[in-house]
Amino acid sequence: SQKIEQNSEALNIQEGKTATLTCNYTNYSPAYLQWYRQDPGRGPVFLLLIRENEKEKRKERLKVTFDTTLKQSLFHITASQPADSATYLCAHMNTGFQKLVFGTGTRLLVSP
Amino acid sequence: GAVVSQHPSRVICKSGTSVKIECRSLDFQATTMFWYRQFPKQSLMLMATSNEGSKATYEQGVEKDKFLINHASLTLSTLTVTSAHPEDSSFYICSASPRTSGAGNTIYFGEGSWLTVV
User: Fold this and answer.
1) Cα(B8)–Cα(B110) distance, rounded to whole angstroms?
2) In 3D, which of B42, B99, B90, B95 has the Cα closest to residue B66?
3) Suppose B101 and one of A28, A48, A54, B105 were both cysteines; which one would form an S-S bond, judging by CB atoms 3.0 to 4.6 Å apart?
4) Percent of chain B whose predicted confidence (pLDDT) is above 90
C-alpha cells in the first residue's frame, strides 16, 4: 500500500540554525508533494507544493526538495525562529488532485 | 484569500446524542469538501469526501450511518456524528478547494472542531 512517512520524533534546534525535515514515500510515485504547517489545535496551513519534475522549490526562508530516486522530500527552514515551532506535515495528492494523504508529521521546536 | 470556516470550534455532548459540525467556504465555491479526523499526536486521517448534490464517499472503515455528511450547497458541508460515544472524541477538520482548481491546486483547511463526548 502507498505510504508516506515522516520522522515522528520531535526535532529540537537552536534559533538561527537550519531545520531539515524528511518525508519518505513508498510503493508509489506521487506527482506532487505538499507541505503544511499545523499549530496545536488548529487546522493545517499550506506552505509549499513541489512537482515531481521540480528538484527544488523556495519561498522566503523555506525550501523543499523532491528526490524521486530516493523517494524523498526534504523541507528546510533557514534562519529558524521560535515562531517556526509547529508540526510540519507532508502530504501527497491522489490522481484527482484534491484528495490528500498525510504523513504523521514532525514537530519542530526552535529554542531561543 | 480563500477561507474555510468551521463551526463550532469546540463542542461537548453527552454519550448517545448527535452533534453537527458545519464547514463553510467563505469566498469561493467548492463542489467537493473533505472531512478529516485527527486524534492527539496523530496525523489527519481522511474520513470522507463530501460531494455537492450527491452522496458522500467514505473511506474504508468509516461508518456512513454514524458520520452523516450533507453537502447541500456549493459553500456548505455538514458532518453529523450520530449516537456519539466517548471514542468519537477527536479533532474534526474539513478542507475545500476553489471550484475552478485543477492539478496542483491549493487546498484550504478549516480551523477544526474539537468534539468531546462525555
Assistant:
1) 11
2) B90
3) B105
4) 69
**DSSP per-residue codes, B73-102:** ETTEEEEEE-S--GGG-EEEEEEE--TT--
DSSP state of B61: T
Q: What's the CA gap between A60 and A75, in Å, rounded?
A: 13
Are B102 and A105 in contact (CB < 8 Å)?
no
Looking at residue A96, its pLDDT comes to 61
Give the count of beta carbons closer than 10 Å to the beta carbon of residue B39: 12
Which pLDDT tens digit goes with each residue over B22-59? 999 998 888 889 999 999 888 899 999 988 888 899 99
The reply to whether residue B46 touches residue A43, judged by beta carbons under 8 angstroms, is no
Q: CB-based contacts of B2: which residues, under 8 Å, 6+ apart?
A: B25, B26, B27, B28, B98, B106, B108
- Do B16 and A82 meet the contact criterion of CB atoms below 8 Å apart? no
Is the pLDDT score of A100 beyond 70? yes
Share of chain B above pLDDT 70, in %: 92
DSSP A48-88: EEEETT-SEEEETTEEEEEETTTTEEEEEESS--GGG-EEE
Distance from CA of A9 to the nearest CA of B (A): 11
For residue B25, count CB atoms less than 10 angstroms from its CB and return exposed for 0-12, middle for 13-18, buried for 19 or more.
Answer: buried
Copy the grid coordinates of residue A48. Answer: 509549499
| Cross-chain Cβ contact A100/B46 below 8 Å | yes
